[in-house]
Design brief:
single chain; about 600 residues; alpha+beta; Nucleotidyltransferase, domain 5; Alpha-Beta Plaits; seven-stranded mixed beta sheet; six-stranded mixed beta sheet
Amino acid sequence: MVDVTTSNFDSVLKAIPDVIRNCDFIALDLELSGLDETHCRNTADLPQSRFKRCRRDVLKYTPVQVGLAFFQYDEDDKKYTVRPYNFYVFPFHNSSQFPDMHVQFLTSSMSFLSSHGFDFNKWVNCGIPFVSVAKEDQMRRHMEQHFDDLRKGLGFLLEEININTQTKLLSLVEETSPQKDQEFKRKDAQELIDAEFRNADFLRLTREQLRALKDEGDECQIKDANSFQRRLVFKIISSEFSEKNLVGIVKSVEGSQDNKDKYILVKKLSVGSRTSRLDYQQKVKLEDLNACVGFTNIMKLISESGKMIVGHNMLMDILHIHNTFFGPVSESYENFKASINSIFPKICDTKVLATTKPFKTHIPYTGLETLFNAVSQKPFKKPVFKFAVGFDKYDQVGAAHEAGYDAYMTGFIFASLLNYLGSLVKPPKAHIPCSSELVTPFVNKIFLMRILDLYYMDLENDDVIPRRHDMFYLMFPKEWKTRDIVKLFEKFGNSIQVNWINDVSCFVKVEGMRDPATTILKTVALAAAGAENFSICTFDEYHEKFEDNGEANEEATQPEISTSKNGVGDSIRKLSATQKRASEEAAQDLGEEIDPETLMPKDKKVRTK
């Protein structure tokens, strides 16, 4: 059982608590309706500015597939048992409380998913519903308040029954309430007057029937009621008759096509009968709510377990999981860190491990598939494992970019890297559990792509902030080109790097800076005197003024350019040699914090915020 849809989700939900409880760690991966990588174009980002850019992307797109792979280590057999799941998830929308939501796709993402076998029909028709924990809590509170009001006699009971099958149409169960009645009363007065005029005969007969029911009898039928007339009947019962022990049951005329011909059966109930109906309706509503929560139930179980969560380059994954299954991601970076820590206390990003000493030496590239192949060879020791019975879909044939398979690869990589850690200690250890102190330096650090001198976000502690004394922030006329900016700085260093933010602002890094920042500020400002909207400040001043105050800039609209002192280079897509060297040095920062003998953290070598 690897692929999970609505057809087999209930059985998975019953079995998965034991799977979670017995596993050592959980690897995850998402496939998304869109992924706009412009959020990682700014190589001068700090963790909080990168978070803001990624958050904007997360608000636009949604997960379409969630992969979870549960790795359970057996001390006796010395091997892992792996249970990968591939969940198709589709937003719940089949009620007034959960209206249709917009799902936005990037065409490139649709093509990518299609080329890797994603079944869009299965996603739409069989995708497991979900609502966020925040929305679920809101609906539960609303439901409890609603039924409390009904028990106090503040609302009118309404049920809808299919008379041909005598089965409850759960999706059509509705109750009126003071709030709904107020909504009805707020409708345009003239519209109500017109409606009463057009339905004068219907309302007169209805009132006569209800008055007769007050005096004697147990029920009455109000026939030929269309949807608006039915609403008028409910309004009359709740507002003009003091008895609150009436229930309106909308029934279909026997033999009608598509149940379109309906009438209202109004019954007089005893207090006990009314209470029983309320209890039944509340039970049905709770079952409906639990059903539409769907996949979120699994994410809640994982969160409650406190187990280690493993991902690869997983910043977007954890942002989407938070926003989709738990609640909106806060605009505040610090609040987000606190929130994700409460959801998943232990997270490990395999890309952080792979770009850190001692692993980096043996891993030239860290893409998921490439890394999977690399850790399957020496000097790494791939983990011994077996797929659990019924979970062998990926045993012989891979399925790259299917969320379940990518989650399995991620977990495999993690186990192999831990094995390699075990080979470095004295005496060597054949197996390193994810709870080991050797893993601690890598926990709750999330990889940050394409930043020159910083490559991880620290979810648990203050972030490591690199020294950027040789970087400046510029605003300038839209007509300016890279050559205009380089000309202002070329005499102050060995090479100039221009990192565009948008058409009118950029960061400039002066490699081998020979003059103090104050001198450069004054000289450049003087040289650009008269240029419209020109301003310059140091990176630290920019960070304090803009990022700390939440005034993030728009995404870059021009490619990054690297130039030498001797002239303007060509526009390039890859990092320049200088950038590569800086990236390699940055990729060793975390490793340099670890003692080579004990693999435990040393004192940090860069300042923290």
